[in-house]
Amino acid sequence: MKTLIYNEIRIFFSKRNIGIFIIGYLSMIVIFCFYFVPKHNNYISSQVHYYEQMVTSDATRSKIITEQINRMKEIGEDTEKLEKSRDFWQADLENCRLVSYNLEHENAHCIAETMIKRDKLLQKVIDEGGDLSSYSIMLRNDERDLKNRIKLQDMYMKNQFYDFVYEKMPTAYYMLSNFFVFGGIPIIVILACVILSNFDCWSKDFESNTYKLLFTMTGSRAKIYLSRTIVTSITTMIMSLMMISILFVLGYFTYGLGDEVFVIVKNTFVPISMWCMNNLMITIVLLAFLSTMIQVLSLFTNSGISLLVPCLCLLVLLTDINLFSSIFSINSLILWIIILLIVIIHFCMVKYLERIDLNGAN
After folding, report:
1. Could you give the C-alpha distances from 203 to 42, 298, 307, 312, 357, in angstroms and in order?
2. Which residues, 6 or more positions from 203, have their beta carbon under 8 angstroms from its beta carbon?
3. Predicted TM-score (pTM) of this structure
4. Which long-range contacts (CB under 8 A, 24 or more apart) does 184-189 make?
5. Which H helix or E strand runs over 270?
6. How many angstroms separate the Cα of 271 from the Cα of each of 76, 176, 187, 261, 320?
């Protein structure tokens, strides 16, 4: 068995597979330096621009409402609601000016205080029955999101953590969390490397007509199958985790660990470190399942290209749908079912290989 495993390790680390993963590692460095870092650097300028637009918008709203109030007073109509609306937009105008100024001077503490004040002011209007359509630009998502955001900001302020205002800062945990957002570049690179290194796991033996020699080697067919499956799966996982660790390390040495951040999961605040570790375990299981399915399909495919093309097309297709948002909400029971399914698939394949007629195989 040791000889089989050693031989499979040598086969897996072919020049092609080594090249695939080297390109994957270099891609992670390029992605960090030329995507995430510029994205963070552009964040402040984009936010300054946003708040400058809000200042202009708030000033215009205040002016229009003031004119309406004056006209209504002339004809003796009630202006209480309009006055409350005017007071809100004037207060928001001052808050936006403060945020814009402090963003330019990178004063995270003052930015955080003003952002919380702005959100709480909006929440007060909503609690008093204000028309939400007038404030949709400030809600971002919905009223529930606003309440959670205020709670989260209060927690950060209590812990004296103010860098939460820089949402795109590529810290170590921020980079790790990007692997759990489908459509994100890092996870696409990893999935592509998994597909490219596994697509001809067995089909290469059928293409070169060496499968008969392979399965008549010393040792049972089960041992031959399991040795290749174990080596390919484990090595793929290790190489994938190394790609993940590259972004984590780059984020850590450039912007810090970033473990002060919390993630809202079902209205519960979860430390980002715990959230990432949980999703990392799910990622490992799902990558193992993907590797298993590709290997099994490869066993029934005489040409590796005929499997590679559909897999890559499927990967491109999946980048356009929000698949991982549901995948990373799966519970532990479903995760164990997936693990059990992997075991069952390999067990069935062992039984299939023990009964297959090599002379009749194509």
Report:
1. 47, 5, 9, 17, 17
2. 298, 299, 301, 302, 303, 304, 307
3. 0.81
4. 185/31, 185/35, 186/28, 186/31, 186/243, 186/244, 186/247, 187/324, 188/315, 188/319, 189/24, 189/27, 189/28, 189/31, 189/243
5. strand 268-271
6. 56, 13, 22, 6, 29
Residue with tokens 């955001």: 149
Lowest pLDDT segment from 3-12, 165-174, 195-204: 3-12
Say if CB 290 and CB 341 are below 8 A apart.
no
Highest averaged pLDDT of the listed ranges 112-126, 157-171, 239-253, 297-311? 239-253
Phi, psi of 268 (to 5 degrees): -120, 140
Name the token pair of 255: 């912007």
pLDDT for 95-141, tens place per residue?
999 998 898 888 899 999 999 999 898 888 888 776 666 666 666 65
Look at residue 13 and give its three-state secondary structure.
coil
pLDDT at 188 over 80: yes
Place of tokens 């190489």: 239
How far apart are alpha carbons 145 and 355 in whole angstroms? 58
- Side chain identity, residue 137: I
Beta carbons of 66 and 84 less than 8 angstroms apart: no
